[in-house]
Structure to design on (842 residues):
């Protein structure tokens, strides 16, 4: 007998028919002999509806009250799911954040989980009850309702699994697992049986929307065994494992090719090569809550350089404005001529294509193969950024699908690869 | 400076426009120099929607989970109202039942309030914050979510007012106050400025749907000054006061004429005059959760009697069936002939018309005037039931409006009476 924490997202409980299907998954899991703890998100659409409701009262709703409003969504879904599980003759009981002391720290609407009290959950499990826990919500100082940001229910599930020392944390979602590439683009994309945690982290950060980065990090840190699988299609999904748990001999150089169309590129031209300028230009962007992804800079001739970086596409306009203001304020320390020379140019018709794989640590030539493949198809590389286990390039968005398919073939992911089913 | 607890019902916050109107009432109350604590129900329709949602999952939903589901309605309205009050430049903060330890006892879906922790509320009031409290919900043993039955938010407001020793508890609703009769029936019905608590209790129990009996009882017991007024029409409403607070000299015999069409009458004929039979016949009805209102019995000739009582119209069919079963079971202690003789007859085309007034304690002749008036109009009285401050009669429902209008005139309530505005 093992303990499984099963998390179901909003699309999995979008209507009562699906709530009953989820109750069926829970019952099957019990039939297999496991103890089960369920974590559930608000019914799909509910959170959006509540956000709209709040925003129609005030343009900038108080985050404390917004959290109270949003958390009501999960309160509805836990109750309905507990009832649906009971209807199958099993015992189930819903738990809200305050009932299991799901303590959080940090600001409203993006709080971070600190601790979960497991005593009551353990007692319930021991007496044969299936706890159904509200995801996404927590309690802050004073017992106030907090929420932990969109997609936070995944993190709730991992936190609960870690606290209960569960054998596995299953994230049921609307995809069958993690693929070598987006199956909508690459016909021969393969579902991976296993993926190493570091790879999953890179892929999550790169926009493969299967799991949130925070959830994967959390699972990694607390050694929670994480499995992604479909609520709708039977299957074993993809296990996110620690490096070494898979067979190293069989490991390919590249595990997956991912892409992200939601980026925009900004370049500040003719930046004087002077210490501290990068900070003065990028600092105000971070302060505005905009996250900067790739940053590339090369010192060129005449001690002038171009600094290029990427942001999310929705932050493109605002980033340009902030940059122009920052340049104007540099007149304190630069000559008027130097300031006049600088300029901001940008491009939001770009795509980021990335190859990921822990295997590339020990195999040279991944970069060569990547650049050669893109050259063969006449695809121009605008920016390059690398880490130990990934290489990302920025290209024109029109070439995105072509590049993904070409690289997927070049790295031999089309054929059923050793880790794919 | 005084402290006012203001409760707004579901129709008062039915949509965002109305939520803003309520925020306006709260702001006006502050402008008048009062400290304000707000109690709010779920937006009209929300509770019904949630009940339907729960009932579509399971025919008999678990009451514990139903409470979790239902309480989400108030969680939405407190957040929205707090935001709307903030938008007027005031400080407001929502509180759910668990945040102010609104402890309840008894079963789910009809729990009873035991205590409220006022410390946090007092601190907030002292620092200029307007607390916005979720009505209807409480916490039971283990911190589980409970609800206190339909219309429970009125009781929440009174409990909060009692705990905070508020100067007044204002129940904002969709009527302008308590009337001498239903204004939809009696054109010259007068709004009462004051009504004595005992009268209000009789009227609430008799189906004048302005306030729930439980709320009035609670206010009476804890000496909370209660005022009913409209969310939509300006005015001072009706103050529910203790006897003696109004001017005794001016007190009329009858304060109001109320009616209730939602009753049905059942008669068990030829019941042997034997101790314990009434209990054996009525007991099983009470056990089925059906509440019995008027009971009339007279011993007649041959030691046989007819026993008549009234129930809510929706319980009419079920009550008949239960009675027939109960009679069949009497064969243990009665002869076969006695059992055969008994019969159940009923009538659900009845109406109850009642005159209420603490003044009738000291004035004889109210019954005479009542029966005389009904006789003048040829209205047959089927049953009579009296208490110290009310006389109720059961008549055919076709005569209901006629009887109410005739009695309203006979007791001189049509002309502006001393306590009416």
């Amino acid at each position: 007998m093992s303990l499984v924490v099963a998390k179901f997202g909003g699309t999995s409980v979008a209507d009562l028919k699906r709530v009953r299907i989820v109750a069926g998954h829970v019952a099957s899991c019990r039939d297999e002999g496991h103890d089960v703890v369920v974590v559930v998100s608000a019914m799909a659409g509910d959170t959006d509806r509540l956000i709209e409701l709040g925003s129609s009262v005030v343009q900038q709703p108080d985050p404390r009250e917004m959290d109270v409003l949003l958390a009501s969504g999960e309160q509805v879904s836990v109750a309905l799911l507990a009832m649906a599980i009971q209807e199958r003759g099993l015992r189930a009981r819903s738990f809200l954040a305050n009932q299991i002391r799901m303590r959080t720290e940090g600001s409203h609407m993006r709080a971070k989980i600190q601790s979960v009290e497991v005593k009551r959950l353990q007692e319930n499990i021991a007496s044969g009850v299936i706890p159904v826990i509200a995801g996404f919500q927590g309690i802050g100082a004073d017992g106030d309702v907090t929420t932990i940001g969109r997609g936070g229910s995944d993190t709730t599930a991992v936190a609960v699994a870690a606290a209960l020392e569960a054998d596995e944390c299953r994230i049921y979602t609307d995809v069958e697992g993690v693929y070598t590439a987006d199956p909508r683009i690459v016909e021969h994309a393969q579902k991976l049986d296993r993926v190493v945690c570091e790879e999953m982290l890179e892929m999550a950060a790169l926009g493969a929307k299967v799991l949130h980065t925070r959830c994967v990090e959390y699972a990694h840190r607390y050694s929670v065994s994480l499995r992604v699988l479909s609520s709708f299609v039977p299957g074993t999904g993809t296990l996110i494992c620690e490096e070494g748990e898979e067979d190293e001999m069989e490991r390919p150089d590249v595990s997956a090719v991912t892409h992200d169309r939601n980026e925009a590129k900004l370049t500040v031209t003719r930046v004087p090569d002077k210490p501290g300028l990068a900070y003065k230009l990028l600092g105000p962007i971070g302060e505005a809550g905009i996250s900067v992804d790739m940053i590339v800079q090369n010192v060129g001739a005449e001690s002038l350089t171009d600094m290029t970086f990427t942001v999310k596409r929705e932050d493109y306009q605002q980033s340009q404005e902030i940059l122009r203001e920052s340049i104007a304020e540099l007149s304190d320390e630069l000559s008027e001529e130097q300031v006049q020379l600088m300029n901001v140019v940008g491009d939001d018709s770009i795509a980021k294509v990335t190859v990921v794989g822990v295997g590339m640590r020990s195999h040279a030539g991944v970069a060569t193969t990547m650049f050669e493949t893109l050259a063969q198809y006449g695809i121009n590389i605008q920016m390059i950024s690398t880490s130990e286990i990934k290489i990302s390039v920025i290209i024109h968005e029109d070439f995105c699908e072509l590049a993904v398919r070409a690289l997927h073939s070049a790295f031999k992911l089309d054929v059923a690869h050793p880790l794919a089913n």
